[in-house]
Amino acid sequence: MYPKPFEKLISHFTSLPSVGPKMAERLVLYLFKQDQEKLEDFAQCLEDIHKLQICKQCFHIAEGTLCSICMDPRRDMAVLCVVEEPLDIIAIERTRSFQGRYHVLGGVMEPAKKNSVAAPLHIPELLQRIEDENIKEVILATNPTTEGDLTALYLKKKLEPFHIKVTRIARGLATGGDIEYADEITLTSAITNRKDL
Ligand SMILES: [Zn+2]
Fold it and tell me: What is the pTM of this model?
C-alpha cells in the first residue's frame, strides 16, 4: 500500500531494536516530511558509520585505531573503569565525574553458562592492560543486574593476583537498572561512592 522506497525503509526501521511496525511507519513518515538537506546529511551519516572502528585498546567506538579517550593525555592513566558496552561510557562521560580511562567487556557472563561465556568477553585483554599499563585501580561498572554482579565477582577473582585496588560502583543505581539509562546525578553518586570489593 506504500510506495516501494517507503515500504523498504519501514522494514529497515522495523529490524532495529525496540522499533515496532507502528513506530517505524511514524519515523519514515517523519523523514518523508524533512527537507532535502537534512535527509542527505542523514544518508551520509549512515554511509559513514561503517568507517568507524573499535578502539584496539579499550574496545570503545573509535574514529581511528584508538578512541579519543585512550588518546587523551589528560586522563588518569592509572584508573580503569570496566563497562559492559560503549553506551555505558557515553553515559558516564556525560556526568564528567570520571577522569580515568575505560575497558569495554562487550557483554556480561550469564549464570547458566558461567565459563563458556567468559571467553568472548574482553577479559584477557583487560588483564593484559593491567600488566602493561601500570593500572592502580579498576572500577567494576557492570550493570547492577544478576549477570552484571556475577561478572564483577568473576573479575574480582581474576584481578586478585595483581594486588591492585578493585572497586564496584555504588548501589545508588536501582538493582536491575541500567547505567545507560541512569540519570546523571544518580550515576555520578554511583561512581563517587564506589566501594572496595
Ligand atoms: Zn579506547
Answer: 0.80
The total of structural domains in the chain comes to 2
**Which residues neighbour ligand 1 (ion) by CB within 5 Å?**
55, 57-58, 60, 67, 70
Q: What is the CATH number of the domain that holds 162?
A: 3.40.1360.10
Containing structural domain, residue 90:
75-196
Q: Which three cell numbers stand for residue 185?
A: 546525578
Q: Give the distance (Å) from ligand 1 centre to CA of residue 86.
A: 10
- Say if CB 93 and CB 117 are below 8 A apart: no
Q: Is residue 55 part of a domain?
A: no
Mean pLDDT (the chain, rounded) = 90
Looking at the fold, whether 29 and 86 belong to one and the same domain comes out as no
| Mean per-residue pLDDT, 66-77 | 97
Q: How many CA atoms lie within 13 A of 114 on its CB side?
A: 6
Q: Which residues contact 150 (CB under 8 A, 6 or more apart)?
A: 108, 109, 111, 114
